[in-house]
Amino acid sequence: MFELIDTIDVENTLGEGVTWDTETQTVWWTDIEQKKLFAYQVTDRNLTTYNTPHRLCAFALTKDSGVLLAAFDCGIGLHNLASGKTDWLFKFPGDATVRFNDGRTDAKGRFWVGTLNEDGDKTASSGLYRVDTNMQVTKVASDVGICNGLAWNNDATRFYMADSSRQIIYQYVFDNDSGDISSRSTFKQLDASTAPDGAIMGNDDHLYSALWGGSCVARFAPNGDEERFDVPVEQPTCVAFGGEDNDLLFVTSARYALSDEAIANAPKSGSLFIYRTGFNGTQSPRFAGETRHD
């Protein structure tokens, strides 16, 4: 089953980072290019929109409902939603051409976030960072072009990361205690027509990946076998499981760089889609560090 049950028409330029909050039954996501953050309460169908001071590329919910661990284009910080202020943990140099991109928290509550290069080499010039619960920010991997699709299997022994520029999903050996990754190998090589984007892990260790340019969400078995579920847009961007029974799949999408003709052919581009599935999945835990934000 893959049944579309709701569409939130927000016309995102680049919807991303979709995350489910079980406590409030709310789905959160960002429009990177429009500098907006969205929160949709599923039960009462209430949509709240926040303006962000920079392009919000990825984020984690925290123990404080009013504070996000935010990966903006220019750096990482604790962002207070009410005041709009950010307590910075890490910033790129002012002349940097990289920005943060996709991010997720692991089972220990550490936040992982990758980068992409907006000017220059798109094949090997970016990296992967980890924010530990003591607020230390560490670069843990390089040799990646557009870092996307971060996920872990259910026993936290495998870490998955996509490189959209190479159409590859990699897998690593993961040490859940230390947060170390090692022994990178190719999990799935896609063809040049699609790029793996945001991802989430199912409870059955199947990896769900939004395929940019592919008009679908792919479901990958642990051995790499796949099935695909069509979505009514060319550029799905990220996925998350949630809902009262944990069987809803939320899918963000983008209008980024689409022609007028392409948008006319797929007018729901940029919407958030909610599908009822026959599957269940994991959620991103809250960031476990202290939110020392005034």
Automatic annotation (TrEMBL):
Similarity section: Belongs to the SMP-30/CGR1 family.
Co-factor remark: Binds 1 divalent metal cation per subunit.
InterPro entries on file: 6-blade_b-propeller_TolB-like, SGL, SMP-30
Binding of substrate, residues: 99, 101, 119
Molecular function via GO: calcium ion binding; gluconolactonase activity
Recorded superkingdom: Bacteria
Active site: 197 (proton donor/acceptor)
GO biological process: L-ascorbic acid biosynthetic process
Residues annotated for a divalent metal cation binding in this entry: 16, 148, 197
Protein name: SMP-30/Gluconolactonase/LRE-like region domain-containing protein
Entry cofactors: Zn(2+)
Pfam families reported in the protein's UniProt record: SGL
Record keywords: Metal-binding, Zinc
Organism: Alteromonas lipolytica
Domain spans labelled SMP-30/Gluconolactonase/LRE-like region: 14-255
